[in-house]
Amino acid sequence: MSHVASDRIGVFDSGVGGLSVLAHIHRLLPHESLIYVADTAFMPYGCKPPEQVLERCLTVADFFDKQQVKALVVACNTATAVAIETLRKHSSTPIIGMEPAIKPAALASRTGVIGVLATTGTLGSGKFNGLKSRFEQHTRILVQPCPGLVEQIEQGKLSGEQTTALLEHYLQPLLASGIDALVLGCTHYPFLMPLIRQIVGENIDVIDTGEPIARQLQRQLEARNLLSPERAGMVEFWTSGDCALVEPVMMQLWQAPLKLHHLPV
Ligand code: DGL
Q: How far is the CA of 187 from the centre of ligand 1 (A)?
């Protein structure tokens, strides 16, 4: 990435999922101006070959480079698993990525059995499996890919028969195996929290990494003296998909009106 000149922070995901992270960033750092990119035209990343996801990440990073962002948040577990090392090699800008919260889940678990919901891409990655093997000695880690779930969220279907049936199908085997902590290893899934709670009940720790990532971003900005002065930050939204289709879902999830810009693919 070229020399930092703007005061903005880039945040991206394959689609609307990263809004769950953006919300934590906006809440913790209200003075920061944020640019959010949903790469909807290439969603879902989770079932695409890693080379294809990497190519998209480099294209989106190039857009942020042109915007001269002062930091970049990869608000996607799949993209982080596949691309973060390459993105960092290409850039001197601080880049923050997501990682399924196996460590906090393993620490919180009393049964010693935890579950991880994530995309097929994340669960198949070397990065994820390296992380998993670090905790496997003391904790049984059950992984569950969730094809189809991201597509439901992209349509704003956070409840209803189809989404409930899919989620029950993915959660029942984990519950039957005695998990007491559940890691949400995809940034789309926090939007299903009410439904997840309904299915798993109150006695299971459901762990989302949006807030810790916002705090990590804050620490990185502080360390580099990059925090913005005290004025309200702006949030700008972009999609590589069809704005007319994506805008209503984004507003539903962001819970405020917004104007969506089109990112040419
Ligand atoms: N939200 C993304 C993640 O955290 C991926 C969703 C997808 O495009 O498959 O992994």
A: 6
The pTM of this model reads 0.96
Any ligand 1 atom below 6 A from CB of 150 = yes
146 catalytic residue (yes or no) = no
- Enumerate the β-bridge partners of residue 207: 183
Give the domains, in start order, of the chain with CATH numbers. 8-98+211-262 (3.40.50.1860), 102-208 (3.40.50.1860)
Q: Within the chain, which residues score under 70 in pLDDT?
A: 1-5
DSSP for 214-241, written as a single string: HHHHHHHHHHTT-PPPSSPPPEEEEESS
What spacing in Å lies between the alpha carbon of 31 and ligand 1's midpoint? 27
Active site residue 76: yes
Measured from the Cα of 79, ligand 1's closest atom is 10
For residue range 15-35, list pLDDT tens digits in order: 999 999 999 999 999 999 999
